[in-house]
Amino acid sequence: MSRPSWDEYFMQIAGVVAGRSTCLRRSVGAVLVKDKRLLATGYNGAPSGLAHCVDVGCRREADKVPSGQRAEICRGLHAEQNALLQAARHGICVLGATLYCTTEPCVLCSKMLINAGIVRIVFQEPYADPLAREMRQEAGIEAVHWGC
Fold it and tell me: Which of 61, 72, 80, 104 is catalytic?
């Protein structure tokens, strides 16, 4: 049996976390890690205590909004946002951490990750958002497309 690398290990965990997603369009999981220690997890879905899209439907889908547009009308938070919020809620410092995510962060999440002090992002599925990539690069965040 081959032992997984740390990147492989944490990407596998992000994949398991994505299984909790309640989004009808895309299941995304994210984990924040520092010094090989899991700090927080997040998946995409509605805020705590509110109805999820799997229960009430997807407004963006009903309105035929293309992927990457009109995020403000979505009930859910992104997995990266939820991971950052879980860390904040529990008083966990993420400065200098790595984000492992099943999908490449969008521009809104990228801005949050920059301000949170994330230094490395490992993602599996690319997301077509050139501004997000440009801003992460300008901020000096290392980005690794896992599996390539």
Answer: 80
